[in-house]
Amino acid sequence: MEVKVVRSQRRKRSVSARLVNGLLLVNAPLMLSQGYLDEIINSFKLKFSRKKIKDELDKKENLRDLARELNKKYFDNQLKIESIEYVTTQNSRLGCCNYRTGRIRISHKIGLMPKWVRKYVLVHEMAHLIEPNHSRAFWDIVLRYRFTERARGYLMAAGSIK
Fold it and tell me: What is the pTM of this model?
């Protein structure tokens, strides 16, 4: 990612950045040290690259439509999902579900995996809306998805679950 830094005497403390046609335009105070500015620029690069990944995944497949399909097929349209989205800040978990609010977050890593694995992760998180723990009743719900064992094997081989 190409970076252009504009330093200004008028700017005293804050650093801002925006992406313009693939160019990261950074506005910074004149007296800010280059070392500190480099750290800030690296964090901006990470932020904008994560946003790009999320936008591309959202264009590729609408998670809400997929969840609607799975809700109909495996949950008899019982589930009330408030929001479902890809996130790029979730690196150690594949997904998380807040059963109280109905909010589901899916790691961007799942978006790069085969569709049947994405469906498994969605069914897993959606099942938490009914059973918030990993009890036997929870696994009975998840095992309705026919590729559960196959998807778990795939994720184990990929090092995503133990």
Answer: 0.78
Q: Which fold has domain 61-157?
A: Zincin-like (3.30.2010)
Cβ atoms 52, 58 nearer than 8 A: no
Q: Are 141 and 131 in contact (CB under 8 A)?
A: yes
Residue 149 to residue 147: CA distance in whole angstroms = 6
Q: Tens digits of per-residue pLDDT, 95-136?
A: 999 999 999 999 999 988 999 999 999 999 999 999 999 999
Question: Which helix (H) or strand (E) segment is 17 a member of?
Answer: strand 16-20
Q: How far apart are CA 160 and CA 31, in angstroms?
A: 45
- H-type alpha helices, the chain: 34-60, 63-75, 108-111, 115-127, 136-142, 148-157
148: phi then psi, degrees, rounded to nearest 5: -55, -55
Tell which residue, 136, 125, 135, 124, has the closest CA to residue 102. 125
Longest CA–CA span in the chain (Å) reads 64
